[in-house]
Amino acid sequence: MRLAGRRSLNRAIWTLALGLVVVFCAGGICEEVKNLSLKEAIRTALENNLGLKRTQEAVIGSKAVVGEVRSEWYPGLNLSLGMGFDETLSVAGEPQTFEFLGQTYEIHPPLTSQWSNSLCLGLSQNIYTGGRLTGSLREAEANLRIAECDHETAKRGLILEVMKAYWELVRADLLVRLAEEMVSYHQETLELATSRLSQGTIAPVEVEQAKVDLANQRDELIQARTRRREVEDELKVLLNIGFKIGIVPTDKPDFTPLSRIIDMDEAIECALKRRPELARFRHQVQARKAALMAAKSGRYPKVSVVANYGWAGMDKDYADALQNFKATRWGIGLNVNYALFDGGLTQSRIKEAESGLARAEYGRTEKEKEIVKEVREAFHRLTSASERIETMRENVGLAQENLRIAKLQFNVGTITSNDVNEYKTTLSKVKTRFIEAIIDYQIARARFNWAVGIAMEAQ
């Protein structure tokens, strides 16, 4: 009875001490705990992430630029209203001159003043711009496609980061549970060793060793819990939620063997077709070609049609002037503008556009090589992770069987508690490596799908 009471007291003390350590390390307690699946985490990130919202605003801005450029294709209609005061010489008489004291003086007719009011309606329409409008519109549309590719790239990158952070949190949870299991085991081992020492069946050194093992395992548990909090905070940043909200992942890692052998060449071909980063460079080449077209327009004349119709009235008061408005002028014409010399401006713009086109083409080729490298790396990691899981699953089974046999031997007194601890420690290490392998597989599968360009939202 005393032994059982002592065990209960030790467990209570240990539980209280560990709880205080956890609170101290955490620096606070979560006000809310949220059970979160991977799909919910991805949806929350897509709704809240500020970086993704920024790329979405870039798309909206690019659409506005397209509308701005396209507006030059349509006629411009302007209405102007003016009001002024004129003071002029009367033309009724001629100036007269006279001399006085040797000097000649001239008398002008009296000045006359009047109010003038005008209303003019003007219209202009571009007819030919040498390719400037066509090139500018194509460039704006290509830049819109670039902004959309950037948004898609950011979206896919965010999903990948959320998936990685989510599975890292699952990994941390599993390792914490494994560490708690080991602490509980070493606590029981210490209690059993203490009991046998009192019975004189073991040496005191075994009890001391059991204490050392328990302390080491408690330290590992503290580190595991600290790591979990760090990973949880990383996920909260991606989801853009408060740090006081605790996250409990509900999805469990599963291992579904690859349905078929993945063909490397097929994966690379798929990536070169689907990756938005590469599509971005293709649109960038189109934008640079359009910019070159617009730059060359400086070599050609510009033609536009202009027309206007005007009214005028003579009165200070607009209310009365409107009654006396009369059509005084109208006109229509064709404007042709050609730059004979611009100081080398057009030639400099052409060279700049040609350089931009060359850089875009180099960037596209470089990106293709980078994508091929990423696919190959993701391919090797996925196949390696798949193989590791099968191996580690077998090792867990073997370690569990060895521990079962060791416990039987310990019960009959053929081995010591330290020997059993070694088998238990081996099983813990094997389980840790199995957890690492199965989480690494989840991350490797997500990264492979990202590298190939496969949709990732539903994974």
Number of domains: 2
Question: What is the structural class?
Answer: alpha+beta
Q: What gap, in angstroms, lies between the N and C termini?
A: 55 Å
Q: What name does the CATH topology of the largest domain carry?
A: Outer membrane efflux proteins (OEP)
CATH class of the largest domain, please?
Answer: Mainly Alpha
Oligomer: single chain
Rg, rounded, reads 41 Å
Arithmetic mean pLDDT? 82
CATH homology superfamily name of the largest domain:
Outer membrane efflux proteins (OEP)
Q: Write the CATH architecture name of the largest domain.
A: Up-down Bundle
Order of helices and strands: HEHHEEEEHHEHHEHEHH
How is the biggest beta sheet arranged?
4 strands, antiparallel
Share of helix, binned: 55-70%
Q: Strand order across the biggest sheet?
A: 2-5-7-8
Beta strand count: 8
Overall shape = elongated
Strand residue content = 15-25%
**Weakly predicted, low-confidence segments:** 1-28
* Number of helices, where a helix is a run of at least 4 consecutive DSSP H or I residues: 10
